[in-house]
Design goal:
alpha/beta
Length: about 210
C-alpha cells in the first residue's frame, strides 16, 4: 500500500491536482489560509494518472471490501470515479445527490439500490468528512449496508477522523497528506524545511502560526 500511496501522490502533484504554495497560501471558503489546493477532477483529463487512480481504487475495494455489490459516488466529484471503477470491477454504480430532486421521482439516490445491498462509497477528497458522512447516512436510511468509503486523497485532519469514527464508517484513501508532503519534498515541489510547516497546518488548520 505504501508504494501505491507514493505513486498516487506523485501523479497528483505532477498534474497539479495537488498544488502546494506555502509562501502564498490559498484562502478556503471558510476563511482558513491553506498551503495546499486539491482538485482531483484534474485526474479525469490526465489519462495516465486517471488509470492509476481507478485501478488503485479497484485494488483497494477488492482488498478492503471484497463483499462490495454496488459502488456509490458522491455528487459530483465522486461520480466519474465510481463509474470507471465500477466498469473495471464489473459492478453496478450510482450516486447520491446533495439533496433530493424537486421534480420527477424526487430521487436523492440515482441508480438501482435494493435494501440490504452492500455498498462502497467513492469519494475524491476527504477533509473534515462532513459531506461524505451525509452520503453514508442517506444510503443507510435507504436500507443499504455501507461497508465503507474509498477516496483518492485525505488530509487526515483530526476533525475528519473523529467524524468518521463517530459515524462508525471506515475510509481507505489511495494517498494522504503525510505521504504527499514527503514526496513533494523528495521531488522538489517544496523545500525540506517546509514539511514541518505543512504538517503544522494539517494538525490545526485554524492556527496560522505555520505561515510565519
Amino acid at each position: 500500500m505504501k508504494e501505491l500511496e507514493k505513486e498516487i501522490a506523485k501523479g497528483l502533484l505532477s498534474i497539479e491536482a495537488i498544488f502546494l504554495r506555502p509562501e502564498e497560501p490559498f484562502t478556503w471558503a471558510s476563511g482558513i489560509k491553506s498551503p495546499i489546493y486539491c482538485d482531483n477532477r484534474l485526474t479525469l483529463t490526465a489519462p495516465e494518472v486517471r488509470i492509476k487512480v481507478e485501478e488503485g481504487l479497484a485494488q483497494v475495494i477488492r482488498e478492503n471490501y471484497p463483499e462490495a455489490e454496488v459502488l456509490m459516488g458522491t455528487s459530483t466529484a465522486g461520480i466519474a470515479h465510481a463509474a470507471i471503477t465500477g466498469h473495471i470491477m464489473n459492478l453496478p454504480m450510482g450516486y447520491v445527490r446533495a439533496g433530493a430532486k424537486d421534480h420527477g421521482r424526487n430521487n436523492q439516490i440515482e441508480g438501482s439500490l435494493k435494501p440490504g445491498q452492500k455498498v462502497v462509497v467513492v469519494e475524491d477528497l476527504i477533509s473534515t468528512g462532513g459531506s461524505v458522512i451525509e452520503v453514508v447516512n442517506v444510503l443507510r436510511e435507504a436500507g443499504a449496508e455501507v461497508l465503507g468509503i474509498v477516496s483518492i486523497f485525505t488530509y487526515g485532519m483530526k476533525k475528519g477522523l473523529d467524524r468518521l469514527e463517530a459515524a462508525n464508517v471506515k475510509n481507505v484513501s489511495l494517498s494522504n497528506f503525510d505521504v504527499m508532503v514527503d514526496v513533494a519534498a523528495e521531488e522538489g515541489y517544496i523545500k525540506a524545511e517546509d514539511k514541518e510547516r505543512l504538517i503544522a497546518f494539517r494538525n490545526n488548520p485554524s492556527d496560522e502560526s505555520w505561515i510565519k
